[in-house]
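Translate sequence into structure tokens.
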Amino acid sequence: PQQPQQMQQVGSPPAPPAITGRSNPLPVLMVALKRIFPPPVVASLLGVIVALLHPVRGLLIDIDVRDDDAPLAFLFDGLRKIGSAAVPINMFILGASLVNGIDRSTISLRT
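Result follows.
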């Protein structure tokens, strides 16, 4: 049996091939996971997991005595410094991208 052809408008991109139950679902699943979990989301989820697990958090921060002798305290201090510099660096990047003005050719006139 032949598949019915899809109607396409002139100038529109071709439609993606249909996903059938017989195809290998692993590539489709990997694409879906990459779209659902981009790197910032993965990093945020790992941060929440580290914060919730007391033994893992104890490696980075001295929770009990508070005398700054956690085994990986140097790593936490470095990450904290990078995190505190993130907002000023993003402001520099935003300012640098706005210096040249707007490129009107990249904006469509359709609403």
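Note: The first helix runs from residue 25 to 36.
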